[in-house]
Amino acid sequence: MVFGACSTAPRRPAPADLGPIPFGGKSTVLVELGRRGYTTVDEPGRRIVKEEMLGEGVALSWVDAIAFARRAIALALADRNTCLAGWVFF
Predict the structure, then answer these.
(1) Residue of 5, 7, 79, 88 with fewest CB within 10 Å of its CB?
(2) Residue 2's pLDDT is what?
(3) Helix (H, G, I), strand (E, B) or coil at 16
(4) Helices 44-54 & 65-81, crossing angle to 10 degrees?
(5) Which residues pair with 89 in a beta bridge?
(6) What pLDDT, in 10s, does the model give residues 47-84?
(7) Has this prediction a pTM greater than 0.85?
(8) Could you tell me if 76 and 70 are in contact, meaning their C-beta atoms sit under 8 angstroms apart?
């Protein structure tokens, strides 16, 4: 999982990689940044699981890891490409 930020400023900061560390606190950091008024984007994996649990559950990582990975990559790229004005943490 890459945790980073993007801005509409000409220079974009390099993402800080918190790595795929289970229980590493990535979601907690995002919640705190949101609480402090920054724009945040929820992690793709969490959004996929939430949506899939409401539907057929086809693209869950424990059901179809390839479908889950493809969807996570697509969501992450879309998030990165739709940065709003100012800082966006994801």
Answers:
(1) 7
(2) 44
(3) strand
(4) 120
(5) 5, 40
(6) 899 989 998 888 898 989 999 999 999 998 888 887 76
(7) no
(8) no
Angle subtended at Cα 3 by Cα 67 and Cα 14, rounded to the nearest 5 degrees: 120
pLDDT on residue 55: 87
Task: Mark residue 25 as left, alpha or beta (left: phi above 0; alpha: psi -120 to 50; beta: remaining).
Answer: left
Interatomic CA distance for residues 41 and 76, integer angstroms = 10
Sheet holding 88-89, edge to edge: 5-6, 88-89, 39-40
Nearest 10 degrees: CA dihedral of 25, 28, 33, 36?
-140
d(CA 38, CA 33): 5
DSSP code of 14? P
